[in-house]
Amino acid sequence: MDTQKAEESMQKQSYPCLECLLRGNKTLGKSVDAYMCDKHLRPFVCPPPPEWNRLPEIHPARLFQILAMLMKTYDTHREANDDTVDALKKTVDMVRWGMTEEQWREQERHRRVDVNVSMAFGTFHERILANAPGYRHLKQGAHGMFSMDAYHPETRTFVEFKNRSNTTNSASFKSLFNNFKRVVDSGNVGIYVTINSFQSKKTLPEGVVHLTGVEAYDRFFGRPNVYDDLMSTVKHVFTENMTIHDLARELLGL
Fold this sequence. Notes:
By secondary structure, the protein is α/β, with parallel strands linked by helices. It has helices at residues 3-12, 18-23, 60-74, 87-97, 101-130, 170-185, 213-221, 226-239, 244-252, and strands at 136-137, 150-152, 157-162, 189-194, 209-212.
């Protein structure tokens, strides 16, 4: 399907209401129209994009879902539970850092939230990049023998995203190496993106392109300074302390 036909097809689609969009956050890998349901389905017309949205290449419904996922992660506060706490570490931490139990619990709560947030940002970058023009996000094993994160049909490019290169252990990197080997041996293009790492000590198969996050954003979107635009967009959402309903109203007119 060429670009013009794809755009016409998108314009003719109907999109789900806010309730369906929120419920769809757990399965962002699906195409947008997969969230439609008979109960809530209604015609959807995108309003003019707000000035703060500097990612016009991403459909507003998809951008809403990705941003909402990040917002909900920050709003999730997991309390420290004695059943999951190392009592000895807790005791040593309190003595070593001169903390009361209440102070320790507050620090532990922030630590757990930060772990979730860090993971969410890895997912966030993957979803944004996999929704760049021409790319498709893939479920695990969704493209035959190539188990990758994203695919660009026109250029036959398969992409794997990692937040950092050190998040891949030896066993998982071996599997990744073999996947990339199959990709390039089949005449396809392989791209390995490590969002927050500038280099990788691990050797990739010959022909596989290794990109940092900034490089990937410029290449995938086909224009410079995309990462700066992303940062500006996300910063606005959090600086304005938007709720998910605020976000839906500004992006989708709901």
